[in-house]
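Regression test case RT-17, inverse folding.

Input:
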């Protein structure tokens, strides 16, 4: 009798049960699958099959550079004032440098170590007239721009995930562009509104040393700025003069949730330990003054500090609707974008294309399976029918693996499945031809089958490994559709190896034990 240990039989049964259970939700209606647990869900369909929204975003890299310059200018201003140095001409110079003129020669040498600490990666030069220049080398600028783009992709992903969008695709394209594909989202307006906001939240003290009328005439004190208000409709000031110094940044937030206070929607926030300490110190030192809450360079609220807030939490109130409070809390949880995003292209894919693609893919898959089944049954008889059983199980396993891994099925992915169905019986063909050859050399039925499976294994493994290498290269260097093809091809090869070697051998062993044939039906 063919050697087939019990542990192998148990493994085949367990894998077969896995394929049946995890592929079953794909045959159920959406109403039923929505009630299933998250670990037992059908395969997610991609944008080209399900329909949805496609957005092409561009990162404002010039903004990243301006922020680098503005941060350095502010750091220089604070340091020079702290060191009581006399200076002038502080500001940006061109697109890659910052300048400041030290008026006293003694300060130029004394402050050199302090200035170097402010921007270690910049090239610092000092002229004879005291003009100090911080110039960013091109590699440094490119590194920070790449970091900003990577951070933008991560924050876009967080914001989209917070909306509960299933299986979004977010990819870097070119130098400064991001492609966002949202299957099932037919109206992208809310997505665009959320992704278009930088969501840079900062807390500043209101500067009460100057009136709005004076600030409007250009008399804004150094170290302060004039910002518009987002609450003009409630009769509050149209503008505020706030100090440039950031008391607490939004990066210190650890949570933000929409809630209600006095019957009005508000956003409750909570700082980290360090942020809560800074917030408590700020409110303690400025009791009775106004604290401006600034979001994307607009004052959304400026409450009076009545008492120290030491709990590390607070509320942002304003003329919010429930949806606005939800969106603002979502933005704050996801974090601020390092640079604004501009929507360059927007497309909405209708469901008809997806339905047609699914129908065409289903027809192609069914036709391919039918032709393979007929071919195997005609050429190899009973053993061909066993290979067909393994082929069906292979399809179930492939579907189950796609579900478990959370892979998204696209139109190229369907092409990978069709190709897998054709390749799935290659291993059986190699095994059966080897069995036929061994039988012609005079071996008995059991010996021929044993030798056929064992000696064909090396050839099967080599053939599948080379295809897996090609699929890995497609996944590594290909774009979204190519990656979908590579994923289904890889999973299909793995499942077909298992079904061709393990399942087929078990079926052949059981058939020989049951029928005890005198000749091989090959």
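Golden output:
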């Amino acid at each position: 009798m063919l050697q087939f240990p019990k542990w192998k039989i148990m493994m085949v049964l367990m894998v077969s049960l896995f394929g049946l259970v995890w592929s079953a939700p794909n045959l159920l209606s959406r109403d039923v699958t929505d009630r299933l647990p998250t670990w037992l869900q059908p395969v997610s369909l991609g944008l080209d099959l399900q329909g949805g929204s496609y957005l092409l975003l561009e990162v404002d890299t010039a903004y990243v550079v301006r922020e680098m310059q503005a941060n350095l200018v502010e750091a220089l201003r604070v340091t020079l004032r702290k060191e009581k140095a006399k200076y002038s001409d502080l500001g940006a110079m061109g697109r890659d440098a910052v300048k400041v003129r030290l008026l006293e020669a003694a300060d130029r040498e004394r402050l050199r170590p302090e200035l170097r600490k402010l921007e270690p990666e910049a090239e610092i030069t000092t002229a004879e007239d005291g003009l100090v220049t911080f110039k960013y080398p091109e590699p440094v600028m490119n590194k920070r721009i790449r970091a900003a783009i990577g951070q933008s992709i991560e924050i876009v992903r967080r914001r989209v995930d917070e909306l509960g969008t299933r299986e979004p695709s977010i990819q870097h394209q070119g130098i400064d562009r991001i492609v966002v594909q949202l299957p099932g989202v037919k109206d992208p307006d809310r997505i665009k509104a959320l992704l278009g906001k930088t969501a840079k939240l900062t807390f500043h003290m209101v500067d009460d040393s100057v009136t709005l009328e004076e600030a409007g005439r250009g008399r804004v004190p150094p170290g302060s700025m004039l910002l518009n208000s987002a609450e003009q409709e409630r009769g509050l000031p149209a503008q505020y003069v706030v100090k440039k110094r950031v008391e607490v940044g939004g990066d210190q937030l650890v949570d933000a949730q929409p809630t209600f206070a006095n019957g009005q929607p508000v956003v409750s926030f909570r700082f980290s330990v360090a942020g809560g300490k800074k917030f408590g110190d700020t409110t303690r030192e400025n009791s009775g003054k106004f604290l401006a809450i600034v979001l994307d360079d607009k004052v959304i609220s400026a409450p009076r500090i009545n008492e120290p807030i030491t709990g590390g939490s607070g509320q942002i109130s304003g003329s919010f609707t429930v949806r606005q409070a939800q969106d603002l809390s979502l933005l704050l949880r996801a974090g601020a974008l390092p640079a604004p995003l501009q929507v360059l292209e927007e497309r909405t894919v209708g469901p008809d294309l997806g339905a047609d693609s699914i129908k065409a893919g289903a027809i192609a898959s069914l036709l391919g399976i039918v032709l393979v089944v007929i071919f195997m049954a005609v050429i190899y008889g009973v053993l061909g029918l066993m290979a067909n059983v393994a082929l069906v199980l292979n399809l179930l396993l492939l579907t189950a693996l796609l579900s478990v891994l959370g892979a998204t099925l696209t139109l190229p992915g369907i092409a990978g499945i069709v190709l897998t169905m054709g390749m799935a019986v290659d291993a059986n063909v190699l095994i059966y031809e080897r069995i036929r050859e061994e039988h012609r050399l005079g071996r008995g039925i059991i010996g021929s089958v044993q030798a056929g499976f064992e000696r064909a294994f090396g050839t099967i493994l080599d053939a599948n490994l080379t295809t897996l290498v090609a699929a890995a290269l497609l996944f590594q260097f290909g774009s979204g559709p190519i990656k979908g093809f590579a994923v289904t091809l890889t999973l299909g090869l793995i499942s077909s190896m298992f079904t061709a070697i393990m399942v087929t051998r078990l079926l052949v062993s059981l058939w020989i034990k049951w029928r005890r044939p005198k000749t091989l039906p090959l």
